[in-house]
Amino acid sequence: MQLVYADRVKETSTTTGTGTYTLAGAVTGFQSFAAIGNGKQCIYVAEDGTNWEVGIGTYTSSGTTLARTTILSSSNSNAAVNWAAGTRNVYCVQSSGVVGAFGYDPAGVPTPPITGTRSIAIGSGSSANNTDAIAMGNHSNASGASAVAIGNANSVGPTASGSYSMAFGSGTASGSKAIAMGQAAPQATGNGSIAVAAYTAANNASGVDAVAFGGANNSAVGNFSWVGGYSGLSRFWGAVALGGGDTALLGKAQSERMIQRITTTDATVTPLEFDANAAGNGYIQMALNSGASVIVHVIGRETSTGDSCAFRLEGNYATDGSGNPSLVGSTLAAVDLGHAAGASTWAAALAVDNSTNFCLLVNVTGQAGKTIKWVARIDLVEVAG
User: Fold this and answer.
1) Fold (topology level) of 255-384
2) Is the Cα dihedral 180, 186, 187, 192 positive or negative?
3) How far lies 274's CA from each of 80, 263, 277, in Å?
């Protein structure tokens, strides 16, 4: 629905009954409903000093009529007034009774396209094309259900296409419940993701609930990950990355921190995993021709006895031009940071998988008959190229 408002529009009508008003011409000092435009709708008042009616009317230039499209309120219990013979005033107004979608159409500015139920679009070139969508400012586009797009651009404004998404400035939020903010064209494509980039270069968040916040030219790819700085890449599940400013390749010069965990019940060597689900959440895989300084802090604890152990692991992790991983040089033995007497056989070590998943591994060894929960914080300082 499109509603048009024009100043000082007032005519008279002698129409009787509850049908379409035939307009008799502008009252002296006012303009006619022709200012609204043929086929367009406006909010009108019709009154004779006693009875009154407020509604949404559709103007037709042929015959100069105003159809009583929707009655908003009236002296006839909010139904169409059944007019008796006589003359009444009919004029254009703005009404607080309108709760549906609307678009503002001043002279010379195209009415924003509004096709969504209860949607709102305000501004030249803006559009609201889904249920409960809101678009405000020039060239703002809200096409997702319950989406919000707010900006003021000369050509390309914000786009909120994901359901319940929000886009501001020149951002694009295509993920469900995603948020994109800033004038550097940030993109939030992952569901629940947030991308903020104010000035220099776009930040992108494609992982589920991932955040690319602050800095510029960053990308949050891993689900539940966070990235900041410049040219950073958070590629792993739940990782936190800080870019170091090399624009040739995302993640080429950065640090990255992440958590892995697992539960063991025997003495088998077992790799830690992202959220204890490597198959679903991926592995620590680096780009081709890259290297990383690795420092890992590991803690293991048995639930029933409270026995625990802690280790620090360090190494130089590298990949070649085919992505094959290796630990360079002599990998230091695990530094025992302390263990309970009942945890004397527990162990942790760095390793690589260069045959199946081509990744860095943090392996732990528990004890038969004991349920041990393992958690590790893994810190990488990365360089590529």
Assistant:
1) Immunoglobulin-like (2.60.40)
2) negative
3) 65, 12, 6
CA angle 9, 69, 47 (to 5 degrees): 50
Tokens of 280: 């679903």
Domain ranges of the chain: 10-93, 255-384
Structure-block tokens of residue 322: 């085919």
Q: What tens digit of pLDDT does each residue of 328-374 get?
A: 987 678 999 999 999 999 999 999 999 999 999 999 999 999 999 99
Asked whether the CA dihedral 327, 332, 336, 341 is positive or negative, the reply is positive
Alpha helices in the chain (DSSP H): 278-281
Which pTM does this prediction carry?
0.72
pLDDT, tens digit, 9 for 90 and up, residues 88-134: 999 999 765 444 444 444 444 455 566 677 888 888 788 899 999 99
Q: Taking the CB of residue 286, how many other CB atoms lie within 10 A of it?
A: 22
The dihedral sign for the CA sequence 21, 22, 28, 31:
positive
